[in-house]
Design brief:
Helices cover about 10% and strands about 45% of the residues. By secondary structure, the chain is mainly β.
Length: about 280
């Protein structure tokens, strides 16, 4: 009897926790904006690539949920597609992200025994890994080890790190069905603290420094047009004013654990937003 009572005490917090927890998947797209995109911000449909992820969401209270997610996607850019053929740069990279975000549920409306809708804002922190490549002679070359902007040479920066911190932020809408599962739509950008997601920045570099210090391949990929126009200016800025961002957006599907639905209590909210 005592053992059963003790076991019940130990399992009760887990049961309560499970009622507030949901697990889900995300499928959608990834896009990028930066030095090799048409504008600083925008949806460039020819640059949308697949993205997918998994997540867990803890519904702390009606106004607040905490989400831990893992997302994988791909972004790319090509001067040939944005009218900058004279520069001739291109890149692609996979992005693997682990993000912890808070979701602020702006409203909560509907019938808890039927369908509810919850618009939300989200923000938090993320760690992501990237590794930009460029197409060269029919194959793809990893750019970071080359030092296309003189990284590692005297007078230039150290090589940029491939695993960095980002700040996710965005908006979404969830539809909760019978307090058992939900369907959501969301879109969010990532504020980055590097301008080298695409291996291109707004720093001034010298072609001969790169050629002599980092080699022929690094120089060719730094400025592909110089070999075609030998009288070109050997000191140049490869990128522009736009800072790099990447974006994930898509559809989420999640299921509540423990049979407790969203774990937000029994407020009715039928037909209009409920009070938090």
């Amino acid at each position: 009897m005592k053992r059963s009572f003790l076991l019940a005490i130990l399992l009760f917090p887990l049961a309560v926790f499970a009622q507030k927890l949901e697990l889900g998947v995300m499928g959608g797209g990834a896009i990028y904006s930066g030095d090799i995109s048409p504008d600083e911000f925008g949806v460039y449909f020819n640059q949308i690539n697949p993205a997918f992820g998994i997540f867990g969401r803890l519904n702390v209270a009606k106004p607040l949920s905490i989400r831990l997610g893992i997302t994988n996607g791909k972004v790319d850019g090509d001067d040939m597609e944005i009218g900058l053929e004279q520069r001739g740069l291109n890149f692609r990279t996979n992005i693997f992200e682990v993000a912890l975000t808070a979701e602020i549920n702006v409203a909560h409306a509907g019938n808890e025994k039927g369908t509810q809708w919850v618009p939300y804002l989200f923000g938090g922190g993320a760690v992501y890994h990237f590794d930009p490549q460029a197409k060269f002679d029919g194959d793809y070359v990893n750019l970071q080890p080359l030092g296309t902007e003189g990284q590692g040479l005297p007078g230039y920066e150290a090589p940029y790190k491939l695993t960095q911190f980002a700040v996710p932020m965005g908006v979404g809408m969830r539809f909760i069905f019978k307090n058992a599962w939900s369907l959501g739509f969301e879109f969010g950008g990532r504020k980055l603290f590097t301008d080298f997601l695409d291996d291109v920045s707004s720093k001034e570099v010298n072609y001969l420094d790169i050629l002599e210090g980092n080699g022929t391949l690094a120089a060719q990929l730094s400025n592909p047009k110089i070999k075609d126009t030998p009288d070109a200016n050997l000191t140049y800025v490869r990128g522009g004013e736009y800072q790099d961002w990447y974006y994930f957006g898509g559809v989420t599907i999640s299921f509540y654990l423990g049979g407790g639905g969203a774990g937000w209590g029994s407020g009715k909210g039928i037909g209009c937003p409920t009070n938090f």
